């Protein structure tokens, strides 16, 4: 089970924090600070797995992190998750963000934090991994976006009416209308000077 | 990824200049959230940041009490930002719940998100949300059902589980695969927080395991892993099914969508291997059912990718946990050797951990 997913930049500023267990506000901030401390001290050529700090539950929990340019992605997991599997999951998450935001950068994640949360919610639900396929995640997120756009356009119409219009069966339009050979006499127009 | 740094740097000037064109992905610099964030980044001391956030919270408080609801979504996002930095914005909680109740799809999504970030299971305001969740679960709109299920698995008061259980159970038979999957995980969450309330639906979990859609089956494995860990004896009869599923996955019988870098459903394989290792522990008869598929998985996972190493590691752990078989043990030992000698530091770490299993095994068998 995943206990928490944290994202912070090289200075320790939290960009995304999702806890799948309840902690008080102060404890959450402390966890973020402690995790940043542990992770920022790591050299580039050591492994990506760390024992969790005291706050997060002690020895059964591991911190699995990846460092991309200015951001650290940290997943705090217990022993039921595979370490290398989670590493690849972080990669899937980042690739999904890249696809949804088109060459994502830190600013995208700051300004659209609700969108990032929605993408994460399609991947991890209640601490369990829900979906690992990037295309499936994007399909779900797109479906939600489409629904919001259509609701905004026909504001107030019940969803049933909207879907009824979409499913309406229109008569088949004839595709090839053969008029036959019509000799249209084109008059000789004077040329413009 | 140096282009990320470059992109950030090139985006900053257009963001900070007042006559910038608002692009599709960037907020205009005149938006309130943009101003707030720009303000925070310019400050250098924690004290100043506190002052700025307090001012921001005061202004949000004023605007939130006004009857105009169109700004509510934007206010909510700003409040989420303030809370994520650690500042209390409890006056906004009730409005988040209202937003989830009354808003359009987009507002509902932000409302639900805000609720799941602000509140926790024991918060008294959460009871107000229960009705909204019940209504959304019965909605014909699939997205609303999905949102409700997501919130249910994130935060839900324990006492209200009986009220919502039948609705979630009926979603297990929903024609749409994603809803069945989310329902399975929501029920699993219920099992974790209130196990005695969920006893009667174990056969529904079995149905989910045999679901025609592999996604639903994968979700049910979370539950089975937990239940088998607690009580392996009760599920030995399912060993055959799990072995069959793993055989089919490894043999490439799943649709091609489930391939990750040409490895068939790696996370699913890892889950199954863990389940099988619990089932086969200290039990020769069950272990005998597992040997063949374990051998096959070892053989197939020979590619040099991170994720196949994950599968190999799980195979090795499984081999050492279940009843021993000599040729499998040899292969596992070779695997550990490769890990330890590998230049990849993560593999070296896993190799070291596996050697602990190897040592324990040697100690146990020499007694």
Quick overview:
Chain B: It comes from Cynoglossus semilaevis. Chain B: InterPro entries: Adaptor_Complx_Large_Subunit (IPR050840), ARM-like (IPR011989), ARM-type_fold (IPR016024), Clathrin/coatomer_adapt-like_N (IPR002553). The complex is a heterodimer of chains A (193) and B (367). By secondary structure, chain A is α+β, with helices and mostly antiparallel strands.
Structural notes for this entry:
The complex is a heterodimer of chains A (193) and B (367). By secondary structure, chain A is α+β, with helices and mostly antiparallel strands. Chain A has one domain: Beta-Lactamase (2-Layer Sandwich). Helices cover 42% and strands 18% of the residues of chain A. Chain A contains six helices and seven strands, in the order ββαβββαααββαα. In chain A, the strands form two sheets. Chain A has a five-stranded antiparallel beta sheet with strand order 2-1-5-4-3, sandwiched between helices. Chain A has a two-stranded antiparallel ribbon with strand order 6-7. In chain A, helix 4 crosses helix 5. By secondary structure, chain B is an all-alpha fold. Among the domains of chain B are: 54-62 and 74-118, no CATH class; 231-366. Chain B is 70% helix and 1% strand. Chain B has helices spanning 2-16, 32-42, 46-65, 72-84, 93-102, 105-118, 126-137, 142-154, 161-170, 177-193, 202-209, 214-230, 239-250, 266-280, 284-300, 306-321, 326-341, 345-365; strands at residues 259-260, 263-264. Chain B has a two-stranded antiparallel sheet. In chain B, a hairpin with a 2-residue loop joins strand 1 and strand 2 (263-264). Chain B is globular. Classes of the chains: A alpha+beta (193), B mainly alpha (367).
């Amino acid at each position: 089970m995943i206990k928490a997913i944290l994202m912070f930049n090289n200075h320790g500023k939290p960009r995304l924090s999702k806890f799948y267990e309840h902690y008080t506000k102060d404890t959450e901030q402390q966890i973020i600070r402690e995790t940043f401390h542990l992770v920022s001290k790591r050299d580039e050529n050591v492994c990506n797995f760390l024992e969790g700090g005291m706050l997060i539950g002690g020895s059964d929990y591991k911190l699995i992190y990846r460092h991309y340019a200015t951001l650290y992605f940290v997943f705090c997991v217990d022993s039921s998750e595979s370490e290398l599997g989670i590493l690849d999951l972080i990669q899937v998450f980042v690739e999904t963000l890249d696809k949804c935001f088109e060459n994502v950068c830190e600013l995208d994640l700051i300004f659209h934090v609700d969108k990032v949360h929605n993408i994460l919610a399609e991947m991890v639900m209640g601490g369990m991994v829900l979906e690992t396929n990037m295309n499936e995640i994007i399909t779900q997120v797109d479906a939600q976006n489409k629904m919001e756009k259509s609701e905004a356009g026909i504001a107030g119409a019940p969803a049933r009416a909207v879907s009824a219009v979409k499913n309406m069966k229109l008569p088949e339009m004839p595709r090839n209308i053969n008029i036959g050979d019509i000799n249209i006499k084109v008059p000789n127009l004077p040329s413009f000077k | 990824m140096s282009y990320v740094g470059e992109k950030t740097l090139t985006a900053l000037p257009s963001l900070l200049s007042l006559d910038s064109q608002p692009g599709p992905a960037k907020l205009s610099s005149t938006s309130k959230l943009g101003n707030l964030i720009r303000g925070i980044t310019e400050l250098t001391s924690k004290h100043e940041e506190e002052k700025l956030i307090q001012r921001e919270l005061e202004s949000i408080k004023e605007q939130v009490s006004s009857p105009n609801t169109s700004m509510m979504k934007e206010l909510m996002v700003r409040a989420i930002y303030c809370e994520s930095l650690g500042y209390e914005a409890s006056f906004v909680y009730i409005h988040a719940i209202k937003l989830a109740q009354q808003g359009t799809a987009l507002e509902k999504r932000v409302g639900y998100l805000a609720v799941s970030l602000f509140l926790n299971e024991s918060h008294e305001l959460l009871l107000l949300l229960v009705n909204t969740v019940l209504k959304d679960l019965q909605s014909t709109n699939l997205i609303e059902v999905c949102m409700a299920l997501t919130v249910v698995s994130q935060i839900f008061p324990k006492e209200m589980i009986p009220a919502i259980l039948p609705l979630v159970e009926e979603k297990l038979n929903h024609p749409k695969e994603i809803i069945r999957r989310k329902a399975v995980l929501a029920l699993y969450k219920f099992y974790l927080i209130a196990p005695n309330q969920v006893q009667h639906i174990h056969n529904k979990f079995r149905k989910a395991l045999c679901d025609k859609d592999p996604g639903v089956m994968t979700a049910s494995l979370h539950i089975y892993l937990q239940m088998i860990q607690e009580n392996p004896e009760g599920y030995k009869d399912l060993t055959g099914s799990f072995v069959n599923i793993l055989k089919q996955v490894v043999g490439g019988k799943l649709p091609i969508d489930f391939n990750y870098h040409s490895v068939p459903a790696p996370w699913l394989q890892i889950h199954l291997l863990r389940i099988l290792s619990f089932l086969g522990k200290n039990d020769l008869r069950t272990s005998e059912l597992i040997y063949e598929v374990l051998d096959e998985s070892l053989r197939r996972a020979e590619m040099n990718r991170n994720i196949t190493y994950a599968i190999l590691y799980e195979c090795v752990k499984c081999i050492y946990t279940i009843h021993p078989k000599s040729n499998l043990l040899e292969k596992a030992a070779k695997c550990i050797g490769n890990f330890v000698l590998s230049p990849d530091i993560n593999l070296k770490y896993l190799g070291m951990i596996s050697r602990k299993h190897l040592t324990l095994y040697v100690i146990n068998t020499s007694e």
